[in-house]
Design goal:
- The protein is α+β, with helices and mostly antiparallel strands.
- It has one domain.
- It contains 10 helices and 9 strands.
- Strands 1, 2, 3, 4, 5, 6, 7, 8 and 9 form a 9-stranded antiparallel β-sheet that branches.
- Helix 3 packs antiparallel against helix 4.
- It binds ligand L6N33NVT and fe (ii) ion.
- The site of the ligand C=CC1=C(C)c2cc3[nH]c(cc4nc(cc5[nH]c(cc1n2)c(C)c5CCC(=O)O)C(CCC(=O)O)=C4C)c(C)c3C=C has 28 residues, from strand 5, helix 8, strand 8 and helix 9.
- Involved in the recovery of exogenous heme iron. Extracts iron from heme while preserving the protoporphyrin ring intact.
- Its cofactor is heme b.
- It comes from Acrocarpospora corrugata.
- One of its GO terms (biological process) is iron import into cell.
């Protein structure tokens, strides 16, 4: 820990810290349900069609398979055809069906099957498939440069970033979330199979143990540092705030710089991914008091220092008997809190990962951070800048991958496809 941050943190004082002390197989959508309606049982299907894509405010499922693709074709018509084929397969797979009409064993023996088969017999498992378009998709290849939203400008480089280019960026991404890892992997594998010759996988990431709750009906899960993560998240029940902070709004023609010709994104959002490696072994040798001071919340209850319960609003003005703030100036929750950034919020939807070990006796583990917001440059960037500059947590983490994607609105019906408004 650096001198300055340790001083600020330990200004908190130990006394201050202590004082703070069975569903069915393939369930089809019912009338009135859309992609913002949610599965009741973990085996059920989440509706695919709707105003917004599923997989954003959908209560976070247990498992993730995230993939970024490079588009290898230079032909716009081939790209559109791919998006149409992917949409049809996604509509089927999210409802617990095989990727294609013939399936793993129903086609002619001479041809490769139109489903790979490893999800045969498995229910829909809450599968959602959410697509995003990266900044590089809007280069000269597909005639999309004039339709690139201003807010899809590259993220800045943050202090301490150790990004690996081969694990960052991508023309397209698909986030697959499900309660069964085999179902999530099957979905991404089949999209990659369908895309053969038109896209290639740039990188992919498996995740387990969601690190955020996105609904008040969900208990707050824990990240690999052992802390409840997602307490102060935006939740699907916060309908008014979702309009303010999550969904891209229709252009209103006002001369306020907000309209940028990207009307195709109305009802969509922006997705940020950051693969954050944790130095878990160092964290595990850190005292409980120091861990709690770094986060600004207790490890057991998840309450902000000075508060009793997890969902009590943090009081950043409270001081301990030593006159120091109970929540340190450099505590993670103070630096990330909306009150430190003019009220901006984001919807976090990340997952734990363990990619084996690193050959040096350490776990290759951490957080695959995912956030959705209306404008990443106004929401994610200021928060991450503050964290990158001051967060004491930085001594235990390293950002190794980054992505920014425009997430189009939902697919309305079987005649629609992912990104139609962008290409028409
Ligand atoms: C730039 C955005 C954020 C990154 C990157 C980030 C990394 C990160 N966070 C934790 C653990 C916790 N974060 C918590 C709260 C929290 N974090 C962010 C943003 C980023 N975190 C926000 C906006 C908030 C909410 C702040 C608030 O409104 O109070 C918490 C506390 C519980 C909670 O509210 O979720 C924990 C714990 C880790 C370990 C991590 C990188 C590995
Ligand atoms: Fe955080």
């Amino acid at each position: 820990m650096s001198g300055i941050s340790r001083r600020k943190l330990f200004g908190l004082g130990a006394a201050g810290v202590a004082a703070a002390g069975a569903g069915t197989l393939a369930v089809r959508s019912l009338p009135g349900e859309d992609a913002t309606t949610h599965a009741a049982a973990t085996s059920d299907a989440v509706p695919f069609y709707g105003e917004h894509q599923a997989g954003i405010v959908t209560p976070a499922q247990d498992r993730l398979h995230f993939v970024a693709f490079d588009v290898t074709t230079k032909d716009r018509a081939e790209l559109v055809d791919l998006l149409q084929s992917w949409t049809a397969a996604a509509a089927r797979m999210t409802q617990g069906q095989e990727a294609g009409a013939f399936g793993a064993v129903g086609g002619v023996p001479e041809a490769p099957p139109d489903d790979t088969g490893e999800a045969l017999g498995l229910p829909a498992s809450g599968l959602t498939l959410t697509i995003g378009f990266g900044p590089t998709l809007f280069d000269e290849r597909f005639g999309l440069a004039g339709r690139k939203p201003k807010a899809l400008a590259d993220l800045p480089k943050f202090p301490g970033d150790a990004l690996l280019p081969e694990l960052s960026g991508g023309d397209l991404c698909v986030q697959a979330c499900a309660h069964d890892p085999q179902v999530a992997v099957h979905a991404i594998r089949n999209l990659a199979r369908i895309g053969f010759g038109r896209v290639s996988v740039r990188y992919s990431q498996l995740g387990f143990g969601r690190t955020s709750s996105t609904s008040r009906a969900q208990a707050t899960p824990r990240n690999l540092m052992g802390f409840k993560d997602g307490t102060a998240n935006l939740k699907l029940e916060d309908t008014a705030m979702l309009g303010d902070h999550l969904w891209v709004a229709a252009e209103d023609g006002a001369d306020d710089g907000a309209d940028d010709g990207a009307d195709w994104l109305t009802g969509g959002s922006y997705l940020v991914t950051r693969k954050i490696r944790m130095h878990i072994e160092t964290w595990d040798r850190t005292s409980l008091a120091e861990q709690e001071a770094i986060i600004g919340r207790t490890k057991g209850e998840g309450a902000a220092h000075g508060s009793a319960k997890e969902f009590d609003e943090p009081d950043f003005t409270r001081k301990g008997p030593d006159g120091e703030s109970l929540i340190a100036d450099v505590a993670h929750v103070r630096l990330a809190h909306p009150s430190s950034h003019g009220g901006v919020r984001m919807l976090r939807r990340g997952y734990n990962f363990v990619d084996g070990s690193d050959g040096l006796g350490r776990l290759d583990a951490g957080l695959f951070f995912i956030s959705y917001q209306r404008d990443a440059h106004r929401q994610f960037v200021p928060v991450q800048l503050a964290l990158a500059r001051q967060d004491v947590l930085n001594e235990y983490i390293k950002h190794v991958s980054s992505g920014l994607f425009a997430v189009p609105p939902g697919v309305r019906d079987a005649g629609d496809y992912w990104g139609r408004a962008l290409f028409s």
